Structures are given as structure tokens and as C-alpha cells.
Amino acid sequence: MFGEGFLTSRLEEALGWARKYSIFQYPFVTACCGMEYMATACAHYDVDRFGAGLPRFSPRQADVLFVVGTISHKMAPVMKRIYDQMAEPKWVVAFGVCTCTGGFYDNYATVMGIDTIIPVDVYIPGCPPRPEYVLDGLLKLQAKIQAEHATGRRPPSPDGFGGASPAPEMRPEVE
Amino acid sequence: MTAASLLQAIKDRFPLATRACHSYRGDATVVIGREFLLEVARTLKTDPAFQMNFLMDMTAVDFSAFGSKASPAFFSSSGVSVKASPQIPDPDPWLGPPGPERFVVVYHFFSLALKHRLRLEVPVDEADAEVDSLTSLWACANWLEREVWDMFGIRFRGHPSLKRILMYEEFVGHPLRKDYPVNKRQPLIGPVN
Asked: What number of helices (H) and strands (E) belong to chain B?
């Protein structure tokens, strides 16, 4: 009746579905982007609609590392340590242009993008990004989590994005 | 006290220590020799005529590259350059660096009681870049002096723990010195980029 591998593939889908709607984030907030992060988390934009409304301040309990704000060379080992302490499966969101590329900082103090140190799943540029950007990035992350295998990381995809792009009905409706 | 009377009072009190004084843009400024710093600072804090009980800020300036390159006009990056017209006279021109020394340590004092301000400039040579610490008079000088040490490499005699405050201990050099290469990177982890 069921084809070969039917049960395992359904299980993976169910796991991905459960994971993407129960994101426990670790807000690694270092700079002004934290204001937009708070705006996104609060009632008006309400990140809890997407199941990511419960920030954890222990890396052991977190699934997603939100790196929010400029990372200096002095801070970089701390961030790496937080990332290492998180349990698999884990994801990283680079929030704001400073974490993506270093932004307008090009000096002795600033890390030129956190992806030089830890792997990044979703980049949210902007200085700082508006909450709509953040929600869009969160939905892209959810699509990535959904597409992931239950046992391993990041199935290869031709576009390098790790699976399907978000379905149209998942787009945030921000008035 | 007004800026002029404040400067006059300091000049009268310390005729030897005062190398120069001016009130560019209305800010009273005194340039003193560094051997007099502790004495002048103590008087500024304790004397009833001054009562400078608030060290608002201290920093340093590296004049080693001063004037070697013409500064771009204001807003030149936007395509509109604004330059001061030579036809408009400046009644209060800037006097330039206070001395031939490479560094100048700058203190900004404020009197909460008398509501007057004073800027104290202490020129320091590169070969012996050291001035007296003011931590015994203003506790906040502790971290400010650590910052100046970190950024400019100027030592403070008598500081309780003169170590870096902004950069990490492994950092080599002092990044706000003009001879620190603008592209030099010293990451703790990760690639040099």
C-alpha cells in the first residue's frame, strides 16, 4: 500500500514542520540593529506569529543564532564560542549589513562579515533592516529548515539555497 | 568665570607652566608643559576660584600627519564642494598645533559649581610619550587614560593598571596613531580581511 520510504519521508516533513514553527532564537545583540530586532519581536510585528517568539538566553536551549549588530574582532571569539555551544541542529541568521559584510566599517576593529567565522544560513541586509525584512528573512529560514533532512544538514540544491523557496501563502501580510 | 578671566587667572597663577592660551571659538584653552600637569590639575580641582570637579573627557591628538595632505572640501563626496571663501575674513583663525611635539593630550574640565569649562592641552614628544596620571584627582581618569594608552600609546605615570581597554591584549600597536597602517588587520580568529 505505502511505497518504499514513504514513512521516513513523511516523518522528515513532519519534523521539519515542527522545527520551523518552534524556533528558539538566541539574540546575540551587540549594536543598534537590536532596536529593529526588538520592534520585530514586540506586539506590532509580532514574531510569535511565526513561532519564533521565545528568545532563549542560553545557547544550549537555542536553535537559531541571531547575530544582531556589528561584531568586532574582540567580540568574535565570544560569538564563535556561543555558536559552538549550541546543539545541532542549529542555524545562523546574519542580521544587518554589519554582520553580512562589515557594512560601512572597514577598519582595524570590525569583522568583515560573520561568515568569515561561522556559517550563515540567512542574510538580512539593511542598516538596520526594517521588521518586514526581518520577517522575510525568518520565512526564508523556515523554508530552509523545512527542506532539511531530519538527520543531517543542508541537502544540496541547485540554487545553493538549501531547498524550496517559501510558498506564496507564507509571505507576511504587513499592512 | 568667563573664558577670558579664567585664562587670565590661570596665567597669573602659573606663569611658568602656561606655554600658551587662547579661546578659539569661545573655548578657553591652556597649553601647559607636562611637568606641571599634576600641579595645575590639583589647583584646578581644589582651588575655590576654579572648582573643576568634573573631568568631562580626555583624549589625545596625533599631529604627525597634520598638514601633509590637503583636506577635501566639505560635501565633496556628494559632488558639491563647499570651501571657505578667502574673501570672508576670519576674525578668530585657528592657531594650529600647539607645539612641535607629535602628540597632544587634551583634558576637558567642567565646574559643576561655577559652570565654567576649560580645555588643558599637554604636548608630548614621541620619544618620551609619558605624562602624569590624574587618577588620584579624578577617578574617571582611570579608564580615559587607559583609552588614550590603547589608542595612542601614551603612558601615564602613576596609573594603577595601565592596560588596554578597547582593543584586546594581543593587539599590536596603537590604531589611532597616524602611522598605524589604515589597512592593517589583526583578527583574533578568522581570516585577515
From this structure: 3, 7
Please give, rounded to a whole number of angstroms, the shortest distance from the CA of A81 to a CA of chain B.
11
* Any B CB within 8 A of A108 CB: yes
**Could you give the CA distance from residue B117 to residue B166 in angstroms, rounded to a whole number?**
27
Query: B160 in contact with A at a CB cutoff of 8 Å?
Result: no
CATH H-level superfamily of B1-65+89-193: NADH:ubiquinone oxidoreductase Nqo5 subunit (3.30.460.80)
pLDDT tens figures, B128-158: 999 999 999 999 999 999 999 999 999 999 9
Partner B contacted by A73 (CB < 8 A)? yes
- Shortest CB distance from B193 goes to which of A80, A109, A112? A112
Q: Which residues lie across from B110 on neighbouring strands?
A: B54, B117
pTM of the model: 0.79
Give which of B136, B174, B138 is closest to B155, Cα–Cα: B174
C-beta separation of A69 from A93 below 8 A = no
C-alpha cell recorded at residue B77: 563626496
In a 10 Å sphere around its CB, with 0-12 CB exposed, 13-18 middle and 19+ buried, how is residue A5 labelled?
Answer: exposed
Closest to B32 (Cα-Cα) out of B88, B83, B107, B135: B107
Which residues in chain B have their CB less than 8 angstroms from residue A73's CB?
Answer: 168, 185-188
**Which position has the grid cell 587662547?**
B22
Q: How many residues does chain B have?
A: 193
Using DSSP's 3-state secondary structure scheme, residue A50 falls into helix
Average pLDDT score over residue span A122-131: 92
| Ordered domains of chain A (ranges, CATH) | 24-156 (3.40.50.12280)
